[in-house]
Specification:
It is built from 5 helices and 4 strands. The chain is of the alpha+beta class. The longest helix is centred in the N-terminal third of the chain and has 83 residues, at about 25-105. The chain folds into 2 domains: about 1-100; about 105-225, 2-Layer Sandwich (60s Ribosomal Protein L30, Chain: A), CATH 3.30.1330. Strands 1-4-2-3 form a 4-stranded mixed β-sheet.
């Protein structure tokens, strides 16, 4: 029973007790009380609704905080995994460098399995059809060679400035490396450039033929595996006269 009902019941009791009181008198006395009681009921209902709204907002806020915390935790875990992967990649790279450095420092312990000399036209750095065929023959031996490295030594003739020739010989060596890597999936850390430029000519630069012979990249497949049977270097066709 609410307050208004209680007041009406009290009023009815008063009317029954005081027989001389008129109904209008009772109404005049009880109406303000009923109105006040209704106001109190309305205020209580508003307060209850406000409390529920505050509670709902608080629950929503807690849910949002939990969601953000979970998202932040996920991001932190992802960042941690990426950092771990980066560290692993860095460690592997360092290991490959250490292995390669050790290999190059101990080239005397390596034996040549096979080699090829690929030649280039004058002031050119792209592989000719013959050059690709020579590299194909060398690459066919790689799957059967354990503990191998491939050394690449670029060269030029003596025509032109030294700085330009170093750049040209580097581009020629890069052409060889890219070809072996893209066609035969030979890892970059297995290939090592040991010389560039015109410092190590294989022929005199005084003749046209000699200069053509010096426009080359020497490629050697080498192994440090005991018991490996080196092959005789394949004969290369005469370099192009260009």
């Amino acid at each position: 029973m609410n307050r208004a009902s209680l007041v009406i019941a009290l009023a009815a009791s008063m009317a029954a007790t005081v027989g001389c009181a008129s109904k209008n008198y009772v109404r005049q006395q009880t109406t303000p009380i009923i109105n006040k009681t209704n106001e109190l009921d309305d205020l209580a209902a508003q307060n209850s609704k406000a409390i529920k709204d505050v509670d709902a907002r608080a629950q929503a806020g807690i849910t949002d905080v939990n969601t953000r915390a979970a998202a932040a935790d996920q991001k932190a875990q992802t960042a941690g995994q990426q950092a771990a992967q980066a560290q692993t990649s860095a460690d592997n790279a360092v290991h490959r460098v250490d292995v390669l450095t050790d290999a190059v420092a101990n080239l005397d312990n390596y034996k040549i399995v096979t080699e090829a000399a690929v030649h280039f036209g004058f002031d050119k750095d792209f592989l000719t059809k013959q050059a690709k065929e020579d590299l194909d023959k060398l690459a066919e031996t790689v799957p059967n060679t354990k503990g191998y490295i491939i050394t690449v030594e670029g060269g030029t003739d003596s025509v032109g400035p030294a700085d330009y020739n170093y750049g040209l010989s580097e581009r020629r060596a890069s052409s060889v490396i890219q070809y072996l890597g893209s066609k035969y999936n030979i890892p970059a850390h297995k290939i090592y450039v040991i010389g560039l430029g015109k410092d190590k000519p294989v022929e005199e630069n005084k003749t046209r033929e000699g200069r053509a012979a010096n426009r080359r990249v020497n490629v050697r497949l080498m192994t440090n595996t005991t018991g490996a049977t080196p092959q005789q270097p394949s004969a290369n066709p005469a370099p192009p006269s260009m």
